[in-house]
Amino acid sequence: MKAPVIVPCGDDALRLVMRATEDRQAIARALRGSRIWDEVVIGRESVTVQFDPSALRPAKALAMLKQAVMADINAAVVDAPNLKLLVRSDEANAPDLADCAAANNCSSNEFLDILARSNLSVDMLGFAPGFAYLSGVDPNLLGGRLDHPRQRVKAGSIGFIKGYLGIYALDGPGGWPIIGRTDAMLFDKTARDPFVLSPGAEVQIEWV
User: Fold this and answer.
1) Between the CA of residue 140 and those of 77, 95, 111, what are the distances in Å?
2) What DSSP letter does each residue of 106-117 carry, written as one string?
3) DSSP-assigned states of every residue in 148-163
4) Helix, strand, or coil here: 186?
5) What is the DSSP letter of 47?
6) Residues 14-54: pLDDT tens digits?
7) Which of 25, 49, 77, 79 has the smallest number of CB atoms closer than 10 Å to its CB?
8) What is the spatial distance between Cα 195 and Cα 175, in angstroms, rounded to a whole number?
């Protein structure tokens, strides 16, 4: 693995800049497992770690991070969690599927078949609590946000925008075209980590 560039990010954080998705996920998992850093956040082309400058001098933090990236990351990589989701694609649960398929000059079933063959993984969380961005979608599929976002999108809904699927863990507003919905529990308030989907998780979708 090529070592990422490390740059300061304020007085209490360091950012590792990279492009390979698998590197970001592996590094983040290893850094979280080290329990050295106050917070580890994955971005689209980076991993940022936060530390307590009163307990760890920035120069020392930089040296520790360099050492971890160069010597410890590969040994600390663990298998990514895997989750299979059953997703309904009828009109009530996939109101924008037909439009997404038409925009790509294919039928709804052909559109879903292409997605089913994609190697999906959670790239990052954001936009709303627990909202998961899934990468690995066929880059030839076209699609953009809705012109008029919905005031309420049901939890479990799956949206499509070029390059990504987006999974809503909670009810809330949203502008992604919805192409399906799963009944799987994506939020468990009784769990230590209430959101089931986490960065790096591999996701398999079965359309029903």
Assistant:
1) 31, 22, 11
2) S-HHHHHHHHHT
3) S-EEEE-TTEEEEETT
4) coil
5) E
6) 998 876 555 677 788 788 878 889 999 888 778 899 999 98
7) 79
8) 21
